TrEMBL record:
Pfam families membership: DUF4283, zf-CCHC_4
Coiled-coil residues: none
Domain Zinc knuckle CX2CX4HX4C: 161-208
Tree of life domain: Eukaryota
Record InterPro entries: At4g02000-like (IPR040256), DUF4283 (IPR025558), Zn_knuckle_CX2CX4HX4C (IPR025836)
Domain DUF4283: 22-100
Full protein name: Uncharacterized protein LOC108835039
Length: 436
């Protein structure tokens, strides 16, 4: 076996015992919208209680976010589907009837009732109501009867709501010949949501928009502080002799390396060089300083030696000098397996040769890499979920004093029968003392 071996797919036999299509016909498939707050194990146990079907349904956890409930009766399944939206731990779940070949948008829409408020009196028609609700999603049902009295201040519609979109509270519509009107939307049975972006998939503390905004603000503050520090330390002020001789770009920080383009000592020497002359001689010196810096713009070695005052790197021929270990907590390779087997063999041989002088456990510890933090401890270790820890043995269990059994010491010179009698007599004395 090798990593280069081709991974050929396995064909499952086309037999009835390999298919669960018949049992899935009376089932629903669903998914959680906020897995961080909806534990799948609890959902499987709690939803039958909410549906009041108890022993007439069986839940199956398909993944950390997907689940299936298989019903015994058709009417129970239809009743559950009719009373949507369902929530678990105050967060919505999306459910739909099982289909053998689900479409691309399967479990992406929530069939939800919405109440529309503040509808203009001059546009109280079925077509207008449908247009007001169409911004939420595809309209499925409109509850409106113009021939009967209406006691509520809203109109109910049922829409297919895309769970990836925010739960809209209001929407402004431009009415022909009138002022703009704001329609209010109230979603029925929908409980928790993100109170920043109004989505149903996360808490406000974990909102990606807020997290990105905080990152952007932190980056902006960091850049602002760095810019202020550069201005204080590196920018050429008006009273500086180099002002007008060198530009700020020539003496600033290199964006690639993060180091100064010109060493402060070199800048100080330039200032002293310019201050030592007056009049025409000073202008000549200024031109010399400007030309010398410009000539080194395309000479990386000259910049290193004359402007940054950095020495050249040391070139050696010893390849493995001061070589260290490269830590990689990935899967074991072939060399690790060979090394592990060699060490296991050595440890077993040593354990057979001298058991009394050995302080390590008799069982050889396999040498392998595992996912953990880069922390190290001395001694024999074993892997756990959070890192490496020393192997600990179980503590000696000692019963409380009142529960201990007395074991008297026997002295020499007694026969077997006499020893038994003396032990019995002493035990009786001890028991009498405890009763007293």
């Amino acid at each position: 076996m090798s990593l280069e071996e081709e991974d050929v797919p396995v064909t499952l036999p086309d037999l009835p015992q390999f298919s669960a299509v018949e049992s899935n016909k009376l089932s629903i498939i669903g998914r959680t919208l906020n897995p961080d707050s909806q534990r799948m194990k609890d959902l499987i146990l709690d939803m039958p209680r909410k549906w009041q079907v108890y022993d007439r349904v069986r839940g199956v956890a398909l993944s950390s976010t997907m689940f299936q409930f298989i019903f015994k009766h058709e009417h129970d399944l239809e009743e559950v589907m009719r009373k949507r939206v369902w929530t678990f731990n105050e967060w919505s779940v999306v459910i739909d009837r099982w289909v053998e070949k689900p479409p691309d948008d399967y479990l992406k829409y929530l069939l939800v009732w919405v109440q529309l408020r503040n509808i203009p009196v001059n546009h109280y028609t079925k077509e207008a109501i449908e247009a007001f609700a169409d911004v939420l999603g595809k309209v499925d049902v409109v509850v409106y009867d113009p021939s009967k009295a209406q006691s509520n201040d809203y109109v109910r519609v049922r829409v297919f709501f895309d769970v990836a979109r925010p739960v809209r509270k209001t929407k402004v519509f431009n009415i022909p010949g009138c002022e703009a009107v704001t329609i209010r939307y109230d979603f029925e049975r929908v409980q928790k949501r993100c109170y920043h972006c109004q989505r149903l998939t996360h808490e406000k503390e974990k909102c990606p928009l807020l997290i990105q905004a905080r990152k952007d603000q932190a980056m902006e503050r960091r850049n602002k502080v760095m810019l202020e520090n550069q201005k204080k330390a590196l920018l050429i002020q008006k009273d500086d002799p180099l002002f007008g001789v060198l530009s700020e770009a020539q003496v600033g920080i290199d964006a690639v390396t993060g180091r100064r383009k010109i060493n402060p000592e070199v800048l100080q020497n330039m200032r002293e060089y310019l201050l030592a002359a007056d009049g025409g001689e000073k202008r000549v010196r200024e031109e010399r300083v400007t030309k010398s810096v410009q000539d080194l713009e395309n000479d990386s070695e000259g910049q290193r030696n004359f402007l940054r005052l950095e020495g050249p790197p040391l070139v050696i021929t010893e390849v493995d000098k001061d070589k260290g270990i490269v830590f990689d907590y990935s899967l074991k390779n072939v060399e690790n397996n060979l090394e592990r087997r060699r060490l296991e063999t050595d440890i077993l041989d040593n354990s057979k040769a001298d058991v009394s002088t050995r302080s390590m456990p008799c069982q050889a510890a396999p040498l392998e890499f595992f996912e953990c933090s880069t922390g190290f401890t001395s001694g024999y270790t074993e892997a756990n979920s959070s890192g490496t820890s020393k192997l600990t043995t179980g503590r000696r269990f000692r019963p409380p004093k009142r529960m201990r059994r007395f074991k008297p010491k026997l002295t020499g010179g007694f026969s077997t029968e006499e020893k038994g009698k003396s032990v019995a007599v002493q035990c009786d004395k001890v028991s009498n003392k405890r009763r007293a």
